[in-house]
C-alpha cells in the first residue's frame, strides 16, 4: 500500500497517460524554465522527471526577466498530454504571450517540435477520435472545438459549441478540462468551487461527441486535514482493468500536490474514492517492480553527462553569458545589471520544496561580490525571504531579509519593485575567517502553518547557528506556485559586468 498523496511537492495541473507499461505525467511550471515537466512511472506512485517540453518558449523580454517585471503568475499553464499513432502531443497556453502552443515528438525523452494552435484555449484538453481531433477548454462555459488535421487551428465548418455550463453559485466556474473517449462514450472531467464548499471534481458524459453532456460532482473531499478539496485532473487505467484519478490538492505555501484516487464505474459513470472520500492509502500494480527511480530532488548541479540535473529549474530563462557550472557541484553567477530584489534577479536557480519538512544548505564564496550586491539562499515565493551576504563600504555582512509589501497587493500580474526589508544583520568577520560561508534554509509545512528558518555555519562554534527570525510562508496568486529553494545574486549599485558569486556543495535534506 502507498500513500495517496503520491508526490510531496508542487506538481499542479497534472495530466497522465499510459503508453504500454509506462505512465507519463506533465505538470504546470509557470515562469520556471525549462518549462512543462515530464515525469515517468511504472506504478503511479513512484515518479521521476525525465525531460521538459521546452527550454525557452518564445524567449520574450518578460520570460528573460529583462522588462523589470517578468512573467510571474503567468507562463505555461495546465497542459494536455496525449499519444496517438506513435507521436506524443503536448498543448498548453501561456498567459503572458496569450498563445496556445503545440509540441510533438516521437521520443518523449528527446527534443520537441513547437508550433501554435490558432486562438487561446484556457485549460485545454485534446482528444484524438478516429482520425479527427477535438479540444475542450474554457472557464464556466466549456467549449468543444474540432481542429484541423495538423492541429494548427479550428477546422473550417467543424464543431464549435458550448457543451457544459456552470450555473451554480460559485467561486470558481468549471475549468481544468480533461477529455476522454472510453468504451464509446465521451467523458469531460472538470474542477469547480461552489460557494460555501471547497474545490470539487465533476464529470460529464455523452454518447456522442457533440451531443448532450450530463453529469455532476464526483468528488468533494478534504484529505489529511488540509481543509482543501482534492480536484482537477483526469483518469488513467493500468491495462489490468483498474482505473485511477490523478488530481491535486492545495497544501498551503508548499504548493499543489498530486493525489492518486481509486476510480470505479457504475453504469458507465465514474465513482471516485471510497464512500466519496480520498483514502489515505492506495494499492496499485507495479508494471516494472525492479525499476530504480531517480529522486525528485538532488545535490549536484550537473549529472554524469555534464547536463544540468532535471530537478533544477531557473526562475525565468537564464542568460548563459553570465552564469556557468565550473564543476558538477559549483554554480557561478556574474552580475551585469542593477535590480531591486531577488524576484528581479537573473539566473536564479531553484528546486521545489519536497516533503513537509525539508532543508537545504550551500557554501557561498562571496569574495568577488561588490558594494551593494546581495547573494544567498532564498525562500522564493511572492512573500520571499532570504539569508545572504551583502557588501557595504567594503565590509561584508550576513543578512536575513524579506519582502515588505503587504499581502493584499500580491495579485496575479502584480510586480514587486521594492527593496527587501532587512530584519537581521551581522558582520561576517565575527563568525568566518575567509570569504565563504555555509548558509541553510529549512521549511516546515502543516495545516496549521508554513514556516522558514535560517541558519549559518559559525566557524568558532563549529556548528550551525539559527537566526532569531522565523518567516511565515503563504501561497499567493502573484506567483501561483509553491515556495522553492533558490540560489540568487544581484547588484543594487554597479550595473556593469563585474561581480561574481560561487555556490558550492549544495545539499538537499529531507528531515
Describe what this molecule looks like in 3D.
With 511 residues, the chain is mainly β. It contains no helices and 37 strands. It has strands spanning 2-3, 15-19, 22-27, 32-33, 35-41, 48-54, 76-84, 87-94, 99-105, 113-117, 125-129, 132-137, 141-147, 160-165, 170-182, 185-194, 199-206, 214-219, 231-237, 243-250, 256-266, 269-272, 281-282, 313-315, 323-327, 330-334, 349-352, 357-365, 374-380, 385-392, 395-402, 421-427, 436-446, 449-458, 463-472, 484-490, 500-510. Strands 4-24-27-36-29-30-31-32 form an 8-stranded antiparallel beta sheet, with no helix packed on it. The protein has a 7-stranded antiparallel beta sheet with strand order 25-26-37-28-33-34-35, with no helix packed on it. Strand 11 and strand 12 (132-137) form a beta hairpin. 47% of the residues are buried.
Strand residue content: over 45%
- How big is the Rg? 23 Å
| Structure classification | mainly beta
List segments where confidence is low: pLDDT < 50 over at least 5 consecutive residues.
none
Amino- and carboxy-terminal Cα gap: 22 Å
How many β strands by DSSP? Answer: 37
As laid out across the biggest beta sheet, the strand order is 4-24-27-36-29-30-31-32
Average pLDDT taken over every residue: 96
Tell me, what's the shape?
Answer: globular
Helix content: under 10%
Query: Largest beta sheet, briefly?
Result: 8 strands, antiparallel
What is the count of helical runs?
0
Structure summarized in a few sentences:
The protein has 511 residues and is mainly beta. Helices cover 0% and strands 50% of the residues.
Amino acid at each position: 500500500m502507498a500513500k495517496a498523496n503520491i508526490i510531496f511537492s508542487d506538481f499542479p495541473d497534472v495530466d497522465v497517460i499510459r503508453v504500454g507499461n509506462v505512465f507519463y505525467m506533465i505538470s504546470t511550471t509557470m515562469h520556471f524554465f525549462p518549462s512543462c515537466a515530464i515525469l515517468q512511472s511504472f506504478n503511479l506512485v513512484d515518479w521521476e522527471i525525465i525531460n521538459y517540453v521546452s527550454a525557452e518558449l518564445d524567449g520574450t523580454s518578460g520570460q528573460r526577466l529583462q522588462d523589470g517585471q517578468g512573467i510571474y503568475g503567468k507562463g505555461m499553464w495546465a497542459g494536455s498530454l496525449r499519444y496517438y499513432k506513435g507521436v506524443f502531443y503536448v498543448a498548453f497556453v501561456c498567459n503572458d504571450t496569450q498563445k496556445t502552443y503545440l509540441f510533438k515528438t516521437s521520443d518523449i525523452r528527446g527534443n520537441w517540435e513547437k508550433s501554435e494552435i490558432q486562438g487561446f484555449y484556457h485549460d485545454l484538453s485534446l482528444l484524438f477520435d478516429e482520425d479527427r481531433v477535438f479540444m475542450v477548454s474554457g472557464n464556466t462555459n466549456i467549449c468543444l472545438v474540432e481542429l484541423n488535421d495538423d492541429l494548427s487551428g479550428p477546422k473550417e465548418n467543424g464543431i464549435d459549441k458550448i457543451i457544459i455550463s456552470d450555473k451554480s453559485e460559485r467561486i470558481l466556474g468549471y475549468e481544468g478540462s480533461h477529455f476522454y473517449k472510453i468504451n464509446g462514450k465521451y467523458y469531460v472531467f472538470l474542477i469547480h468551487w461552489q460557494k460555501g464548499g471547497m474545490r470539487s471534481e465533476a464529470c460529464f458524459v455523452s454518447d456522442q461527441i457533440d451531443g448532450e453532456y450530463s453529469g455532476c460532482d464526483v468528488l468533494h473531499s478534504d484529505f489529511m486535514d488540509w481543509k482543501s478539496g482534492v480536484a482537477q485532473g483526469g483518469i488513467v487505467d493500468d491495462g489490468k482493468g483498474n482505473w485511477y484519478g490523478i488530481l491535486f490538492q492545495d497544501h498551503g505555501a508548499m504548493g499543489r500536490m498530486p493525489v492518486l484516487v481509486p476510480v470505479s464505474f457504475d453504469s458507465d459513470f465514474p465513482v471516485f474514492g471510497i464512500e466519496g472520500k480520498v483514502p489515505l492509502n492506495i494499492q496499485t500494480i507495479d508494471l516494472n517492480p525492479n525499476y530504480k527511480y531517480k529522486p525528485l530532488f538532488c545535490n549536484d548541479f550537473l549529472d554524469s553527462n555534464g547536463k544540468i540535473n532535471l530537478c533544477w529549474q531557473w526562475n525565468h530563462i537564464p542568460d548563459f553569458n553570465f552564469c556557468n557550472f565550473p564543476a558538477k557541484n559549483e554554480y557561478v553567477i556574474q552580475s551585469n545589471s542593477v535590480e531591486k530584489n531577488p524576484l528581479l534577479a537573473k539566473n536564479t536557480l531553484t528546486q521545489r520544496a519536497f516533503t513537509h519538512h525539508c532543508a537545504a544548505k550551500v557554501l557561498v564564496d562571496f569574495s568577488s561580490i561588490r558594494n551593494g550586491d546581495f547573494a544567498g539562499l532564498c525562500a522564493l515565493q511572492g512573500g520571499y525571504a532570504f539569508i545572504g551576504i551583502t557588501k557595504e563600504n567594503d565590509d561584508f555582512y550576513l543578512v536575513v531579509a524579506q519582502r515588505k509589501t503587504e499581502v493584499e497587493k500580491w495579485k496575479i500580474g502584480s510586480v514587486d519593485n521594492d527593496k527587501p526589508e532587512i530584519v537581521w544583520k551581522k558582520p561576517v568577520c565575527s563568525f568566518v575567517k575567509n570569504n565563504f560561508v555555509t548558509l541553510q534554509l529549512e521549511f516546515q509545512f502543516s495545516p496549521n502553518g508554513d514556516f522558514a528558518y535560517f541558519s549559518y555555519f559559525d566557524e568558532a562554534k563549529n556548528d550551525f547557528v539559527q537566526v532569531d527570525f522565523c518567516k511565515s510562508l503563504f501561497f499567493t496568486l502573484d506567483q501561483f506556485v509553491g515556495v522553492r529553494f533558490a540560489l540568487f545574486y544581484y547588484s543594487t549599485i554597479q550595473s556593469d559586468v563585474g561581480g561574481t558569486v560561487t555556490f558550492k556543495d549544495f545539499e538537499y535534506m529531507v528531515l
